[in-house]
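It would be a great kindness if you could assist me with a short task in structural biology. A protein sequence and the structure tokens that stand for its backbone fold form the material at issue. I should value your view on which stretches of the chain appear to form regular backbone elements. The record follows directly beneath this note.
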Amino acid sequence: MSQIRADYSKNQINNAGLVIAKNYGDIKALRLINSWREIHIESMDVVFSNIKVLAPNTNTIIAERLKRLSTIVDKVQRFPTMRLSSMQDIAGVRIILPDITDIQRFIKKATKPTADYKPVKLPTNYIADPKSDGYRGVHVVYKFTDSGLFVELQIRSHLQHVWATAIESMGIYLDQPFKNGGGDGQWREFFALVSSAFAYFESSDPIKRHKKIGLAGIYKKIEKLNGEIDAVAHIQSFAKMGETLNTSIQTARKLSKMVTPKKSKYALMSLDLQKKEVKVKLFSKNKSQRVMQAYKKMEKRSSRYDQVLVSVSKMSELAEAYPNYFLDLQQFSVMVVTMLEEYGKSVV
């Protein structure tokens, strides 16, 4: 396993975080942060491989991603006292399981220490206690014993994943920072209500403020908000737009046929926020330095581009693991429409 590089200390990393929070253009600090981010790749791959071994054999998607530089900077700006060396989600692994029962079984496996790392604390359970914006899932943070590096594991059900990626996609379409808790209040509450409805479908707790009104009350509020912001029409329109992207989900699936899974390890995805186009480049496992060079080069482009470095257990699952990068709202659109149709039937 990797050790923290000897050419800089944790104090230097923390100082770089403080500098970049005030001056994003500081070249020396950016270079140091990029180097710090890069050494997380090996640890991330170790967790990724172990999760693959622990995961059920069917209906499971496993992915990993290295945090975008802009997201790291945004986080240190929002939390100015945060030490960059202790940021726990620079490297992240995600597993998507069919339902909550599968999650409960998997958590028991995922929280056992290994020879390389161990959980730093009990899992953060956003299913038992959803975030106020509606986010649900379980997070486990691992710390590597030799390097002190952190890797975060996100565990979601399929339904939770559909919701989480839909709100990111709608944030892109509407140019609203929903992911960071900002944006239009009516849209935020719409997504929160849909999340609470999904929670009822999974026999789990809704957001605290929605408990008193129950599922019928949630449906009623969704219908009311839909009438005010025309949410379903917007979602359906954007879902249709997603089908006609220059590089669509179907194109992403074809990538797996162009490069054999044994040769392809990393996918560098770039979304043009103006043209609503996505491009994907694949790199083999032994090209981690090359992919990081390409990643850093992409991040120097204008803010109209959003890019991320990811990996999945099968390249054919790329679009399913990251539908927000393909602006895919199909499943979410169908679920919301069906939900409102069922509510309509119940009040006739």
